[in-house]
Structures are given as structure tokens and as C-alpha cells.
Amino acid sequence: MKKKIGQTIFGLLILAVLMIAGWYIINWLFRSFLGLDKALASSIIAGFVALISLIFAYWKEREKSRQEAHREKKTEIYSIFFDIVFRILKETKNKNPTTPYAESQELQDSLYELMKGVLAYGSPEVVLSIGRWRLNSNASSNTILLHVGDILLAMRKDIGLSNKGLTNINIHQVYVLDDMEKLLKETQ
Known about the structure:
Radius of gyration: 28 Å
Shape: elongated
């Protein structure tokens, strides 16, 4: 306990010294700048602004290229989840499937690939929503449907799509013919 207090005091002392030194340096630079010729001062300002602009543009371009590279991989991984959901939906329309997909090894393999990819490339929101879905896999069908909606919204957001006007209920309206909000209210 004493060690933590000592470290905190030492850290605050270093911070205070750095702030005082920074103040003196900024003050000295400002006074030196005011003493310069106006033409030289404007050239220095222009050069400083150009340098900051160049650094900012480089940083933004690098960030954009990194996001674009990850977006492609995320889309590939998230399509595994879409394939799983739509395959189960398709199977529910076929009343008597020979081998239920929900119990197949193929589903287990797809889920394994999805989890592996989401851990590597998914945003925290996607990882958490899939975790909640997996934890509640034995819940009611309405709860599972809401969790799937959360996952779909998180995935859309993660790849840069807008979710304006979408909820974890009405996002299912794309592939369900009944009014989802009314259906969920009736079954609760």
C-alpha cells in the first residue's frame, strides 16, 4: 500500500515538473517568435501548418487503407453467419429435411470458423453480441431472434453500413413476411 502511494506521489511530482518545464519552453518559444521579422514568422507558420497537414493526411490515409483491408476480411467472415442463419431459415421452410442442419457437423464446422474469424477481426460489439447469443442458445425463440438481430446490427455497423431506423426486431423484416414487432408482442 505504501509503495502505491509513493509511486502516485512520484508520478504526480514528475507530471508537475514536466508541466512547469513545458510552460517555460512554450513561453520562451512565444517570446522568440514575437521578436522575429514578420516575413520570417509568417514563413515559419506556413511551414508548420504544411507539416501538420502532411502528417495528418498520411495518418488518415494509412488508417483508411487499414480499415479497407480489414473490411474485406470482416465481410468474408460475417457472410459465414449469414449463411448459417439463412440455411436454418431455408430448412425450416422444408418441413422434413433428411439431416437437420441445426444438428449437423457442417454447422459445427461453420460455427468454429465464424468464432475463429470474429475473434481475430470482429469489433468488440460483434464479439460481445455473439457471446450473448451463444450464452442464451437455450432461451426462447424470441430471445434468440433478438440476439440474432443484435448480431446483424453489430456486423452492419462494423463494416461501415448505417443502421439508421433499424432495430434488433425490424431488421428481420427483410426475410420474414409477418410483422415482426407484432409477432414478438403476441408471443410474449
